[in-house]
Specification:
eight-stranded parallel beta barrel, two-stranded antiparallel ribbon, alpha/beta, 13 helices, TIM Barrel
């Protein structure tokens, strides 16, 4: 039975303050699964990621209305990796029943108990390694959410839980409640972080990171592709910005000022002998509180190129990192 490979070049970091180790580069399904990847291509991309040493695969209930979890689950069955060999994560909040009270945009106990069962059924597994609250819920007491998430872990349906795009105050409140009641604490955040989007992770979470060593499994490390440099001549037909329903990205990816800032990275990438995408992914890994950088791809070649970033990471000295930050500074 094949398993994801342990690549000697790949760094495996602890997920926050837990003992769980995850590959510093990982693979996620946002946008691509179902819209760009069917099960066969998803399988090929996941296999390529596994061959490169990836052991962390991210998903969410809301991605493609649940189809993303179904596709990833089917790919995992076809790959036939033993369950102990990979880390599987998903996120809940938005819900799949949009017109039903208690079943969307919430973290109440009833929704969470139904949501985890639905995700496990779509994946075809007994548990996920990390279950995230995909957003904070201002209408549900944090204490109710913490109790429900802790009970899900006690039931063996998840091993750890985390937050996604929560404020530092909300994360601290959840940790304090869990401590007070001897419950399972959240251990990691999943937030947007890249060269163009740094404030929340580096400033707002600074005290949370220092006090709790709270992990971060970041998404959009390439700013939806802007940091690859491929949008300087317009929006390619095969890009995510050209997909139905993703037109909201087009304006951001056509921003002339942002493109000009990104282009200042090109000489640095050329000097180091890497792509702009690899350069930007490597930059994300240099934050010590980043446990893993979630990459996405619609082609096997993109997966292979993204994971070749392991060869670029050692080249990013403090001087190069500072040069990059100065280059894109507005």
């Amino acid at each position: 039975m094949a398993t994801p490979n342990v690549n000697p070049k790949m760094e495996y970091r602890r997920l926050g303050n837990t003992g769980l180790k995850v590959s510093v580069l990982s693979f996620g399904s946002w946008v691509t699964f179902d819209t760009q990847l069917d099960t066969d291509l998803a399988l090929q991309c996941m296999a390529a990621a596994g061959d490169a040493g990836c052991n962390f695969f991210d998903n969410a209930e809301a991605y493609a209305g649940g189809k993303s979890e179904t596709i990833m689950g089917a790919a995992l069955r076809e790959l036939d990796w033993p369950r102990w060999s990979y880390v599987l994560t998903t996120k809940v909040f938005w819900g799949l029943h949009k017109d039903t009270p208690n079943m969307n945009n919430t973290l109440n106990r009833k929704y969470l108990m139904h949501a985890i069962d639905g995700s496990l059924e779509r994946f075809g597994v007994d548990f996920v390694d990390v279950l995230y609250c995909h957003r904070a819920d201002p209408d549900t007491p944090i204490e109710e959410t913490v109790w429900a998430m802790s009970d899900i872990i006690d039931a063996g349906k998840a091993l750890y839980w985390g937050t996604s795009e929560w404020s530092a105050d909300e994360i601290r409140a959840a940790i304090d409640i869990a401590d007070r009641h001897h419950l399972h604490k959240p251990v990691t955040e999943q937030s947007q972080y890249n060269l163009l989007e740094r404030k929340k992770v580096e400033r707002e979470y600074a005290r949370i990171n220092a006090d709790f060593n709270y992990g971060n499994t970041i998404w959009s490390p390439l700013a939806s592709g802007l940091l690859t440099g491929k949008y300087k001549d317009g929006i390619p037909e095969d890009s995510r910005a050209a997909l139905d329903g993703y037109g909201w990205l087009a304006g951001r990816l056509s921003d002339a000022e942002a493109i000009a800032r990104v282009e200042k990275l090109r000489p640095i990438a050329d000097r180091l002998g890497c792509t702009m995408a690899q350069l930007s992914l490597a930059w994300c890994t240099k934050n010590p509180y980043v446990s893993t950088v979630i990459t996405g791809a619609s082609k096997v070649s993109q997966v292979e190129s993204n994971f070749e970033t392991v060869d670029v990471i050692p080249l990013l000295t403090d001087e190069v990192k500072e040069e990059m930050e100065a280059a894109v500074k507005s």
